[in-house]
Amino acid sequence: MASMENICNVVHEMRPLLLMIFGQIILAGMNIVFKLATSDGMNFSILIFYRCLFASVFMVPLAFFIERGKRAKLTKMVIFQGFLCGLLGGSLGQNMYLQSLVYTSATFVSAMFNLIPAITFVVAIILRLEKLGLKTPAGKAKVLGTIVCISGAMLLTLYKGPEINMGKTNINLLHSTHHKGESKPLAGAILALAGCTCYALLLIVQAKAAQRYPCPYSFTALLNVMAAVQCFVVAVVVERDWKEWKLGWNVRLLASAYTGIFCSGVLFTIIAWVVRMKGPVYVSVFNPLMLVMVAISGYLFLDEKLYLGSVLGSIVIVCGLYVVLWGKDKEIKKLSQLVPDKEENDIKASSLKDSSHGGSSKREEKEDEGEENKRDSQAGSEILGGIYIYH
């Protein structure tokens, strides 16, 4: 009886780890079904529309029941931010992601999209939403990690190297497809970088929206509805033949339903749970695991070749990613120590009412500034978990 209780305790402690591994399996499967659907000749604009449509059908009821009675007021600004997020993460970001996938491979695109935290940091610096902080270890780590990530991306794109032969499985799911897709590594890399920039802007807008509308399920539902409408307009312009819109019992339906329900629905719920249990940085460090799974599954089932340049570039990008995340983690912990919690501030404020007010305004200004920086930093870090949702 005691041993069974111990096993239950171990499983309970391992729950975040198991959930994140399951999440990475979902994402690895997403890259595979995306590649199969586009290779089957499915227009990727239509595929993205169906993904957003399935995601909306899944998320709207979920948000309605989970956040019923505690939903904040939906203002015009929140709707506009939802529109922007749908544009950046749906009609723009995902179109670039899929076109890059067509031109390259699932492994290549997965490696490139590990650049998102570094590019988000660069964009935040340009928009003056974040400071370099070169005098602090956290600031130095973020800058160094960003440089390492970009170096890895250049290595991944420009150096091919010898093929790494690990034997053949004689399994190639792309044999049954109609379109193999033309290989354009440079164009694929440019599109992947543009897609990463879209996602970086998405994360910044989403972080700001989270301050106005702290209802993650409802905002994700709004985002997906906006993205579905936008993607429908784009898909209609691109593809007028309605025969191409039909979904049969084939890989096209599988890709649309899988990516919409599991990647934009189930995975979001997993991320929300784990962020609540372990924090956003814990979620983010699992991203490279997807790269490994995609590389292995692509090699085994899609006949994708592994080259030394791809392996080395991926390793460098992952190392840079972890350095950036380490710096972000240190920054948040430091701000958490410098700025007391809200309840603690309220107690201190009430105790100071009956005492002298000399110098209190300066302290309050520092605390307000620190609290604002803390919120911005935490919002940016919490959105790191959201990177998975919009792949």
Distance between the termini: 44 Å
Number of helical stretches of at least 4 residues:
15
Strand content: under 5%
Question: What composes the largest sheet?
Answer: 2 strands, antiparallel
Overall strand count: 2
The coarse overall form would be: globular
Q: Round the Cα radius of gyration to an integer and report it.
A: 22 Å
Membrane topology: Multi-pass membrane protein
Domain EamA: 17-157, 187-325
Family: Belongs to the drug/metabolite transporter (DMT) superfamily. Plant drug/metabolite exporter (P-DME) (TC 2.A.7.4) family.
Organism: Nicotiana tabacum
Descriptive account of the structure:
With 391 residues, this protein is mostly helical. The protein has one domain (44-172, 182-337). 75% of the residues lie in helices and 1% in strands. The chain contains 15 helices and two strands. Strands 1-2 form a two-stranded antiparallel sheet. It is globular, with a radius of gyration of 22 Å. The protein starts with a helix and ends in a 7-residue tail after the last helix. Residues 346-362 and 369-391 have low confidence and may be disordered. It is a multi-pass membrane protein. Keywords: Membrane, Transmembrane, Transmembrane helix. Residues 17-157, 187-325 form the EamA domain. Residues 350-359 have a biased composition (Low complexity).
Task: Give a concise summary.
The chain is an all-alpha fold.
